[in-house]
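re: ur question from earlier - yeah i can do the single chain one, its not a big deal. heres the input i used so u can compare w yours
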Amino acid sequence: MPVNLQLQAQAVDENREVFYIPNFVTEEEEGYLIHQGHSSTKLERACKSKIWGGQLTGKNVLLSQPLPPFVEVHPNIVNRLQSTGVFRASTHGAPNHIIVNEVEFLFWQGIMPHQDGPAYHPVVATISLGTHTAFHYYKYTTGNQGQNATEPTCEDVARIIDPTPVMSVLLEPRSVVITSGSLYTSRLHGIGNQIVDHFTAGTDDLHPPKFADLDVTVANWRLLGGRDAKDAVINGGLLERGIRYSLTCRDVEKWDPEWVQCH
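and the output i got, formated as tokens:
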């Protein structure tokens, strides 16, 4: 995937399929986006969500609507994502669809492992706001792994998910994680429902810091931008979660131009 040189330095994995950028938005922009997320449309359900950019049909065609002006003006997150180069090969060259989620970890909410599906160009940029979280990538198993195996989502009823992540990253507030390549097309991603994340200390590649509950490396530990997160991860501390807002930005490649013109 073609990306700019600056983004290459933010690669999490050797294959350069996952990129992590801390402080992608400022604290002022974070507060503004959270406010806009609350005020523009009512969030619904326990894991509250809404959509900017239009609805998908059952045939994965977007009934397109304009994105809210603030994501293209201030803060212009669409342009920032476009400038990384990750959407260069997509139909529109930039995200045209954003899902806003609100998860309150105080109520033991998480997001089950899932795949984003074929409607989108195989790149997703996830902006985290409000609090940190742990973001895990999973693979399907080739057989029954026993009681610890994770139940598949409804669209994958014939497949079992290996409960041990193939890679895990710590998402700080105001950061963005970009997923592409095989980690988008053949892996799943999800967020556990922990209220507190505990870490096992580590300071080098031979003994890297880990998420203590899963005994898996914090893959982006060298890229963390915040002092509190770095200290907790490297020295084996903990981080308490709060209410997390996320903007999941993707390019839906098929859309109905006649529907756009009529609405």
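The helical segments are 5-8, 27-40, 77-83, 181-185, 227-235, 257-262. not sure if urs matches, ping me
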